[in-house]
Amino acid sequence: MPTVMKYQTFAEFYPSYLSQHSNRTCRQLHFVDSTLALASFVMLVFTGNLYWLLAALLCGYGFAWVGHFAFEKNRPATFKQPLYSFLGDWVMYWQMLSGKVSFY
Questions:
Q1: Which of 68, 1, 73 is nearest to 30 (CA)?
Q2: DSSP class of residue 68?
Q3: pTM of full prediction above 0.85
């Protein structure tokens, strides 16, 4: 069984996180799921309906996991380092919006 590297800081983790998102379709699915999760969270805040929390979780992970298993052919970092992976999702999302990480 391969050894799982545990990173001490997010700065150490993030380059590895980006390398696990080299497939453009995987990155695009991450962008879609983060956008839908954000919209669901906003709906939760405005409506108070907890079903939006479930929608946020399903959107936030569903598309991303499809991207990893079907296109990237790897295991999502969520299974190895959930907190850093969650942070990585939002940093990559911002970097995609700002053009630092490519959609293509």
A1: 68
A2: I
A3: yes
pLDDT digit string (tens) for 52-75?
999 999 988 998 999 999 999 999
Q: Which residues have C-beta within 8 Å of that of residue 84, sequence separation ≥ 6?
A: 7, 10, 13, 14, 17, 77
Structure tokens at 23: 């497939």
Looking up tokens 């996991």 gives: 65
Buried b (16+ CB within 10 A) or exposed e, 60-76: bbebbbebbeeebeeeb
DSSP 8-state secondary structure symbol assigned to residue 99: T
Contact criterion met (CB below 8 Å) for 94 and 14 = no
Residue holding tokens 């991450």? Answer: 30
- Tokens in use for 28? 């695009």
